[in-house]
Amino acid sequence: MFDEGKYSFNIIAIYKINILDLLIKNRLLIEERPLKKLLKRCTSIIEYHNNVAHEFQESLNNQINIDFTYFELTIKRLLSLWKTNKLEICNYSNEKLELDKIILSTRTNIYQLYDKLHEAQKIKLNKLEYNKLTNEIQSDQPKDRKTLHDLINKLQSEIHTLRLEKKSYINIWHSRKTQFSETINTLQTISNNIQAEKEQERSKVLAEIETQE
Question: Residues 160, 133: contact at Cβ < 8 Å?
Fold first, then answer.
């Protein structure tokens, strides 16, 4: 079946990617202009080195100085942009690390809630069965001794089963809680190590920037 919404979304996504590629290409062309202009100016010096008037030579020298200054400013701007991008990459990495921690904590809470829900549902079902047997015993309908005896035995069996299941759930819950704690501690250690590495990388980048400045 044709999904018009999905198709439109894909078209928009492709259009945005094409626009982004075009912007990057145009930016690269703009950044390349100072170098091309400088190369062209140097080529003109080689061609007219011995065949130009003194006034033209001075004008050419001034133009070359301007071109070199413009090129130098472009290099400095690109270097500054590179430093900024590198710092932003470090910041984004740290933000991603924090988001991963939140996701891990949320998933752990969801798993724990699922366990609690499952346990509550089991207890509810057993309680309903227990209430049903109790009502049968306490009903006003006459019953013979054997029937009452069987119901009492069944009720005692249900009570015993409930106690065992409760004990089992408690053990399972403690076991899973311990496993969750160990997993979280392990992941926290890994996360701290990654954070330390990121901080070292950030300090290194800042040191490089200060050295270059």
Answer: no
Residue 143 lies in a domain: yes
State how far the Cα of 13 lies from the Cα of 15, in Å rounded to an integer: 5
Specify if 22 maps to a domain: no
| Residue 193 pLDDT > 80 | no
Which domain does 182 fall in, by range?
A: 92-212
The span from the CA of 79 to the CA of 67, in Å, is 18
Model pTM greater than 0.90? no
Within 10 Å of residue 184's Cβ, how many Cβ atoms?
15
Residue 159 in tokens: 């009570």
Tokens of 129: 């069965």
- Cα separation of 163 and 130, whole Å? 12
pLDDT, tens digit, for every residue of 4-34? 444 454 556 565 566 666 666 666 556 677 7
Domain count for the chain = 1
DSSP at 99: H
